[in-house]
Every structure is written in C-alpha cells, then in structure tokens.
Hints:
This protein is α+β, with helices and mostly antiparallel strands. It has 8 helices and 9 strands. The protein has 2 domains: 1-99, 2-Layer Sandwich (Phosphorylase Kinase, domain 1), CATH 3.30.200; 110-254, Transferase(Phosphotransferase) domain 1 (Transferase(Phosphotransferase), domain 1), CATH 1.10.510.
Amino acid sequence: MLTSDASIIANNNKPGVYPLKHENALYWVKVSGENKSNLVRKISAQIAKLNAFTFFQTNATQSAYARFAHEKTILIKLAQLGLPVAKILADDERFFVTENAGVTLKELPPEQITQDLIVKIFSSYGYLHQHNVAHGRPALRDIMVRHDDEGAHVTLIDFEESIENANAQLKARDMFLLLMDLGRLSFITTEQKLSALLQWKKLVDDDVWQTLAKMTRTFSKLTFLAKLVLIVKPKNSTSRHILQAVDILKVATQ
Length: 254
C-alpha cells in the first residue's frame, strides 16, 4: 500500500522530500522534522507582530511538527476548494504523500516557459489570495509544471510558510517575492512579467493592489541600499533581483 511504503521511507530517512515509485507511478513523500528557525527569523517574527510590519511574518520560528501539521491542513483545505496545490493522498503524523506534479519551474526548459504559462503561475497565486491565503515564500522550486495534451498545468507546493486570513500586505508580499525569484530566469522579459502581473490584479481586491503600490513606493526609496551592495559585490544576485522587481512594479503601479 502507498501508506506503508511511505512509512518505510519516513522511518529510514532524515527530514526532507523523497521519491516513491508505487504501481508504476511516481509520488513524493515529505518527511517532517526540518528545523528552519534562526536568530534572524526569530527577530523577523517579533517585528511582524506590528501591523505595519507584517511583511516580515514567518512560520519558521514554530516547531517542525507545528509547521508540518499546518502545511497538511492548508493543503487539504485548498485542494478541497479545487485550487492548484499538491494533493495529499496518504499521511500520518510524520509524513504525507503527494502525486507527481511534473518538474519545478527552475528545471523547465526555457522554450516551455511561454507567456500562457507565466500568466497561469501568477493566476495560481491570485486564486490563493481570493481565498485569503498567502503562500508566504513563492520561489521557482515551489512551482511545479506538468504538460499534457491540454497544455501546461501549474501546481504550487511547500506551504509551510503559508498564512490563513492573510492581509493585503502579505498577499502583496507574495507578488514581490515571486517577481524577485523570476529574476533568476533572465529570458523572461519585463513585458511578460508585467502582463502576468496585471492578470493577477484582476483576481484580487483593489486594496491588495493599492498595498502593492504603496510597498513599491517604500522600496523605491530604499533601492540605494541594493545599489550600494552591488558596488561592493557586483555579482550579488539578490540585490539585482530586488532592483528588477521594484522597476517592474513601478511601471505597473504608476
């Protein structure tokens, strides 16, 4: 059975995600236990308790068990709503099993990353936001893509940092972090990102868009910090991606 096979993997491996082949199909087993707390995240969690700084909210200070249980609960709820998230097929307190959803956006060949796919990715986050859930940490590795005769299908994974009853700032943060990480794919043009961002705008309430615009104005005043980092470390990718994201948002929200 799928559950017993997954249990063997959980009993014999460290926390992480592992492939499982069962009856000629591929599944993934996520084993609980990874501790992601550190001093910076603890400080961020305290700052985020202030309404003006919810941008820094994180679940990383919670115990590994709490984050794991939270992720399972969120995934089950969102899947029941028909949203594009990983579907849990079997689980217990130590692990859960999901079906194979393709490859990560990071691994996808550039020729397969079309404008239609980029719009689907932004829209997937928009559907979460419509249900007042923020992913918390959008990244290329958390976006799975599968192709079939009907086209590309997007599945979002890794909801440990997700937040229910998310406010506008947390939803806007998702977009900023998504745009930042997309900067790693240099072949995606500014125009493509702008077009997809405007599709996301259609899915969310106006206060979310206005919050994103306000966030953009704030970050615009702080871009000198990223520029200073680039003077010292010209190859610093994080600073470059921050500047790229801010530039895109300035055009979109002006």
